[in-house]
Design goal:
251 residues, alpha/beta, five-stranded mixed beta sheet, globular
């Protein structure tokens, strides 16, 4: 049975196509420019497929349900924060506030590594600390890229959004022009956030491993020198898939 899982974030909607629990394909569309025609391009040919949605963009939820039904005839199921209660003790959290993407990343860590820090570099930069079935907590910080874009809009320094090449380890050095200086600053911010969270987790919870995912995760290979840091593509989708298998396998 094929399975489609949608991860609806503030910036992008990611489509994860699973076959026998193997993620075989992903597509991405912009959340802001969402339309039924864009959705149709990604799902028009699917059939005999289960569809699940993890969303942090509540105002799109009903529209997406209706559009998916119109295009495919399939009634999609939403993944909710309450669904994760069987996996984590969430009694100290406000279940109405915690994002399902945070919980999805946490669950991927639980099953893949048992004990680790998870960091997602997306629209918001967030980190979670997981120790088996214990979700210790989360850290949410402004997106580095959004900060750079705001700098573009409010200063006369630079007007391009495509100057950051995160892959270059040299970007941790000082820049010698506006582009390289701001690019270096973005790299230092990503580097500093990750190491700060990891250092705190090591000292207070004896967590030594960090999993990095999200839109910019594949670009931070200046951190790959550490054996304790691993990039895991599509970790939120993987976490959703683990949950779906347990919740809906008999339904």
């Amino acid at each position: 049975m094929l399975k489609l899982i949608l991860d609806v974030g503030n910036t992008n909607i990611k489509f994860g196509f699973f076959d026998n629990d193997k993620l075989i394909k992903t597509n991405i569309i912009s959340t802001k420019s969402y339309s039924i025609s864009q959705l149709r391009k990604n799902i028009k040919n699917i059939s005999h497929t289960q569809i699940y949605i993890g969303s942090v963009v509540k105002h799109l939820n009903n529209q997406m349900l209706n559009d998916i039904k119109t295009i495919t005839g399939i009634s999609a199921k939403f993944i909710n924060a309450k669904d994760f209660i069987s996996e984590f003790d969430l009694s100290k959290f406000n279940i109405n506030e915690i994002g399902v993407d945070i919980l999805g990343l946490s669950l991927a860590i639980k099953y893949l590594y048992k004990k680790a820090i998870g960091i997602s570099l997306g629209t918001a930069t967030f980190a979670v600390a997981v120790d088996n079935s214990k979700l210790i907590g989360a850290v949410i910080a402004p997106s580095i890229e959004l900060g750079i874009n705001q700098l573009n809009e409010t200063t006369a320094l630079i007007k391009t959004k495509d100057f950051i090449n995160w892959k270059k380890k040299s970007q941790l050095r000082f820049g010698n022009n506006t582009n390289s200086a701001i690019s270096s600053g973005a790299s230092h911010m990503a580097n500093g956030f990750i190491w700060s969270v990891l250092d705190y987790a090591q000292k207070h919870f004896k967590i030594n491993r960090t999993i990095v995912s999200g839109g910019k995760s594949t670009y931070i290979n200046f951190l790959s020198d550490s054996k304790n840091i691993k990039v895991v593509d599509n970790a939120v989708l993987i976490g959703y898939n683990y949950l779906i298998n347990k919740l809906f396998r008999h339904k």
